[in-house]
Amino acid sequence: MIRRRKPRPGLTLAIGFMIIIATGTMLLMLPVSHKDGVDVSLIDALFISTSAVCVTGLTPLDISKTLSTFGSTVLMLLIQAGGLGYAVLAVFFIWIANGRIDFYSGNLLRDSFGADHRINTGKLLRTALLVTIVSELAGALLLFTSFSRHFELPRAVYLSVFHSVSAFNNAGFDLFSTSLVSWNDDPVVLITIALLIITGGIGFLLIGNLVGRVRNRNAISLHTKIVVVSTLFLLAAGTLLFRFTVDGIDWKNAFFQSATVRTAGFFSFDQASMSHAAVLVSILLMFIGASPGGTGGGIKTTSAFAAILASFSLLLGRKPKAFGREIEGDSIMKAFFVITIAITVLALALLLLTVFQPEADLETLLFEAVSAFATVGLTLGITPDLTLISKIVIIALMYLGRVGVMTIIASFSRRMEPSVRLIEEKILIG
Question: Model confidence over 283-309: pLDDT tens digits?
């Protein structure tokens, strides 16, 4: 009997996301998903479905004026599926059916979070599900305290749940047409959404490590320390920079912008009104993004930290160290690889966008491309005006950003076989 080899976990993840996107596209094409008299084209349905599953938030249409309650519920479920990830859902149902997580399913789950073999997959799955449920429920209750003052009970409940799910999964979809501009003076809404974004963005691995520290006094991992320090630094730096580069913005909206621009697509003021300096800050923060194992995108905080640390260490002639630990060379190489591939993909996408959107300025197109690849969802207003080819480019960027370029490359690359060690020779650099 010939045993059929199972596909690599990375390939399974990539295909799984495609299946969810295709299913969402078909559901969003149904007349029941639209409001009366509204039609949605195939490319727009695919764009919205990809944006939801890839938890981005970019959309060529006004969701609040296009989708019915059924359609927005489909959108919310796609966001939830995309935020948790195909692997979590697949492994959860396997666990329910079999009562255990087999070897292949465990590898699938680890690959989806970028975790190593030492991670207990059962604990990781339970942590992901529990954190998601508790965070979204708490967020919905807090949002309800504000929404209930402006909407009738059923609508207030629905809006609270939808925006809590969208925020925790770093999707940025809203049902208000102008995102949170109408709520920019409401600290409860802004802080709740910001905290949900941060919680979803820091990653389930970090939360699991902190819980283990409290319960069993486990050591705090180097990964957790790097993510916490990087996240706090980026939040503080972003808040200060936006406070002084955006005219008329107060501290709470500057903080909100700092939180949302790295991982989600909510906004509390018109993004097109930002100065060139604020746009540049936004692009840099979007490019870095969230942290591994979370619901956000970007090159991730750990990649940026490792690359910057390695660069300074090379300059000072010493090995990269942080918090009393030496970072392994493989992690450094992966960080530079991720950054290099991200820049390459964005450069190619930007080239295509400049060809098919000749009327748009380079700054606007770069902002759109980085927002899509980092699964952020903010825009300077060009999304509704994208041509067919430009929409396809943005769809590809969102998919690559969510699934991960390394995951896709690993799915098709062959394992390195041991070979004869060759003589090393230096080349001139710089």
Answer: 999 999 988 877 778 898 999 999 999
Amino acid found at 25: T
And the tokens for 341?
Answer: 């591939």
Residue type, 191: I
Q: What per-residue confidence (pLDDT) applies to 13?
A: 72
CA distances to 187, 232, 277, 370, 399 from 282, in Å: 22, 16, 9, 10, 21
**Phi-psi sector, 366: left (phi>0), alpha (psi -120 to 50), beta:** alpha
Percent of the chain with pLDDT over 70: 82
Helices 103-113/86-98 angle, 10° precision: 160
Judge whether 410 and 298 are in contact, CB under 8 Å.
no
Closest CA to 184 of 278, 268, 71: 268
| Maximum CA extent, the chain | 74
Q: Each residue of 90-132: pLDDT tens digit?
A: 666 656 656 666 666 666 666 666 666 666 677 777 778 888 8
* CA 146 – CA 349 distance, rounded (Å): 40
Query: Residues near 340 by Cβ (< 8 Å), separated by ≥ 6?
Result: none
Higher pLDDT, 129 or 414: 129
Would you give the distance in Å from CA 215 to the centre of its chain? 29
* pTM (2 d.p.): 0.88
Distance (Å, whole) CA 190 – CA 252: 8
Mean local confidence (pLDDT), 123-147? 89
Q: Which residue shows structure tokens 């090379």? A: 314
Once rounded to an integer, what is the mean pLDDT over residues 144-173?
Answer: 94
Q: What angle do CA 282, 284, 287 make, to 5 degrees?
A: 105
> Does the pLDDT of residue 427 top 80, yes or no?
no
Q: How many angstroms separate the CA atoms of 107 and 282, rounded? A: 35
Secondary structure (H, E, C), 398-416: HHHHHHCHHHHHHHHCCCC
Instruction: Report in angstroms the alpha-carbon separations of 44 from 48, 345, 377, 398, 413.
Output: 6, 23, 15, 14, 33
Output the DSSP codes for 343-379.
HHHHHHHHHHHHHH-TTS-HHHHHHHHHHHHTT----
**Four-CA torsion 309, 310, 316, 317, nearest 10 degrees:** 150
pLDDT number for residue 1: 44
Tokens of 200: 């979803």
pLDDT tens digits for range 241-272 = 999 999 989 999 999 999 999 888 899 999 98
Quote the CA–CA distance of 363 and 383 in Å, as a whole number: 14
